[in-house]
Amino acid sequence: MKHAMETYQFFFGALANPNRLHIINTLRQGKKNVTEICTATGIEQTMVSHNLKVLEHHGMVFREKEGKYRYYTVNKKTIKPLLEFIDAHMEEYCCKIMGKKR
Amino acid sequence: MKHAMETYQFFFGALANPNRLHIINTLRQGKKNVTEICTATGIEQTMVSHNLKVLEHHGMVFREKEGKYRYYTVNKKTIKPLLEFIDAHMEEYCCKIMGKKR
DNA sequence: TTCATATGTGAGATAAATATCATATGATAT
DNA sequence: ATATCATATGATATTTATCTCACATATGAA
Known about the structure:
The structure is a homodimer of 102-residue chains.
Chain A: H1 2-15, H2 18-27, E1 32-33, H3 34-41, H4 45-57, E2 61-66, E3 69-74, H5 76-93
Antiparallel strand pairs in A: 1-3, 2-3
Chain A binds a DNA duplex (30 and 30 nucleotides) through α4.
């Protein structure tokens, strides 16, 4: 059943990256344009653009044009419950693993 | 807030891999030992062992010893709702993306 | 139109994850 | 004790993802 599982690889692959998670996290505070994301996260602009493209393609963020700016918002309907679900999983099955490596 | 996000990278990193997803999928049918996982998935034994180790470390599967066999079970409490949640996300935000690349 | 600011894209360089191989350990049977 | 089957581990080879750089496009201002 490799086929059905490809969907999940697609999904998880989008989120298994520190820069993308950092961007998602900063967008949880509210919508931001690319430059604002850069200053908030300290990530270089072209890297931010590359990663925003991935996130948008995976439905994790949305984009809206405003003049010369592109404002991005996080997909709260997906991200919020997902992160909460993971918190619960980690609490129950991986308590005290983080803090060490991997 | 890179710190809080590391947890999520840890979590997603465990699942963003085709072999590990393949193993998880085959374990959904019921518990299997390593050799059974190999034949069911077609993945080489050492690769299966390496990946099972990762999955166990992340609380995605559990292991129980039975004589010379090690039986693995999937963490249904996490995996089942997670995959269903992703199905819903994909349906709503990524419909018709899969089938193409990435 | 020309310039400055904002953002996006492609390609090569770099880093990280995965696969493979050789071998180790552990258990049961002979 | 030895042989065999089951599983695990470590090191290197290979693949894949990420980062960086040079440049492209787009918008609004001067």
